[in-house]
Amino acid sequence: MNAARIWVVDDDHGVRFVLATALREAGYAVEGFDSAQAALAALGNRQPPELLFTDVRMPGDDGLALLERLKSRHPELPVIVMSAYTDLASTAGAFRGGAHEFLSKPFDLDHAVALAARALPELPSSNASKESRSQAPASMQDDAPQLLGDSPRMQALFRAMGRVAAAPLNVLVTGETGTGKELVARALHRESPRANKPFIALNTAAIPAELLESELFGHEAGAFTGANKRHVGRFEQADGGTLFLDEIGDMPPALQTRLLRVLAEGEFFRVGGRELIRVDVRVIAATHQPLEALVADGRFRADLLHRLDVVRLRLPPLRERREDIPLLASRFLAAAAQKLHASAKRLSPAALERLQAYDWPGNVRELENLCWRLAALAPGATLGLHDLDEAAGPLASASVEGDAWEGALADWARAQLRDGAGDLHAQARSRLDRVLLQAALEHSDGHRGAAAEKLGVGRNTLTRKLGPGRKRR
Ligand SMILES: Nc1ncnc2c1ncn2[C@@H]1O[C@H](COP(=O)(O)OP(=O)(O)OP(=O)(O)O)[C@@H](O)[C@H]1O
């Protein structure tokens, strides 16, 4: 399958390099340009890309001028505008010029890659091999990332998805960040009779409130200062298909009212327009916030919640389905290896144990990112605790508590055995003693009696273990 082509236009070599590298790692074919002119010149003699990232402030023509020229020649080409100046004027200018998304600098690379994936037109299905139990229903399997999960919670979710996918009902997907809400929405769309119509996603929290209305419903030329062209909103773009509204809890109250009316009536006016637009759109909304609590606080309309919440799908956090971690990790490592043209790395039992002991506040996304980092950075074919320490900040320190120390011990023992050590048991015992004694002494401010009591050993034993040279208190 041909990789989607992405161009990155930025006069800053560093930004160009890191963004291009991250996008390449995600499997795209990327070209960089250091100015608007260079990109436009390339456009003259080459096929246009499928997606373009551009900076705003560059010597020569700026990114907004580039956007305008691109849009006049290739109106369908999605453009993501990046800028360190996130004032309303530049964001509004970018959106008015037809930008698909606005990315504030400095940005998170994972976020940029995710935006690219969303902005690219959906690719045609491939005949991916089919496995039944641990994936979403069979016909939901195509080129897109698959929802995986062997745990009873995920199996129940897959069954619920299978039941509601084809029904013409609005769906509310709830779950912490990174649990796969968007993946669920895409899968529901692909499994519905609307599959050949557009799937349009909009992250309510990512768009300035002032622009959200025209982003959703579009505007006519002259609707407000600077609106010099008609803009077709996401509702119209999604006609016949599915509109995914992410972070719905962040929608401003006035827009909630407007959305409610559109959902009830199926028709609306563009901002500044007189023509009544009728659309047939299935809305899938998602939130990581407890909407009932927002309703109780008066921050979310109860009637809108009822309209969206015809069917609710709850995504469990990863820490409540730790048994899925081995499957997910091995799939992510395999996918990364394929993209990196390398052979897949495996996790040592101790490393896997640590991954299963960790709480994953960023859920599956965090695990996926870690696997990509490990695939790209770790030197060996087997990933041990040392590789996790190198690759993962919070995970490394979180492992100090919990059961992961047994894993660390196991890794240490294997390394010693490999190096031919003969007195492992004595060595391990003396290190264990040292760590325990130090912790107990710190805890009891250096009082040996108290430390011995805490450890459940006699004072003499403690003194003997401490050996000579320790000051007594
Ligand atoms: N069950 C799963 N199986 C495989 N991949 C998954 C699963 N859940 C999530 N992912 C992957 O994790 C990443 C995050 O998923 P997604 O964007 O759908 O989460 P989200 O809940 O919508 O997050 P947010 O609330 O932050 O927008 C994606 O790359 C997705 O492919």
Secondary-structure blueprint of this entry?
Layout lengths: L4 E5 L3 H13 L3 E5 L2 H10 L5 E5 L7 H11 L5 E5 L4 H9 L4 E4 L4 H11 L32 H13 L6 E4 L6 H10 L8 E5 L5 H9 L16 H4 L4 E5 L6 H13 L1 E3 L6 E3 L3 E6 L3 H6 L5 H7 L2 E4 L10 H15 L6 E2 L1 H9 L5 H15 L4 E2 L1 H7 L1 H6 L5 H15 L5 H20 L4 H8 L3 H8 L7
Parallel strand pairs: 1-2, 1-3, 3-4, 4-5, 6-11, 6-12, 7-8, 8-11, 13-14
Antiparallel strand pairs: 9-10
Helix pairs in contact: 1-5, 13-15, 14-18, 19-20, 20-21
Bound molecules: adenosine-5'-triphosphate (ATP).
Adenosine-5'-triphosphate binds next to α7 and α15.
Notes on the structure:
One of its GO terms (cellular component) is cytoplasm. InterPro entries: AAA+_ATPase, AAA_lid_NorR, CheY-like_superfamily, Homeodomain-like_sf, HTH_Fis, P-loop_NTPase, Sig_transdc_resp-reg_receiver, Sigma_54_int. This is DNA-binding transcriptional regulator NtrC. One of its GO terms (biological process) is regulation of DNA-templated transcription. It is found in: Cytoplasm. By secondary structure, this protein is an alpha/beta fold. It folds into 4 domains: 121 residues, Response regulator (Rossmann fold, 3-Layer(aba) Sandwich); 181 residues, P-loop containing nucleotide triphosphate hydrolases (Rossmann fold); 91 residues, Helicase, Ruva Protein, domain 3; 43 residues. The chain contains 21 helices and 14 strands. The strands form 4 sheets. Strands 2-1-3-4-5 form a 5-stranded parallel beta sheet, sandwiched between helices. It has a 5-stranded parallel beta sheet with strand order 7-8-11-6-12. Strands 9-10 form a two-stranded antiparallel ribbon. The longest helix has 20 residues. It is globular. The C terminus is likely disordered. The structure holds adenosine-5'-triphosphate. The site of adenosine-5'-triphosphate has 18 residues, from helix 7 and helix 15.
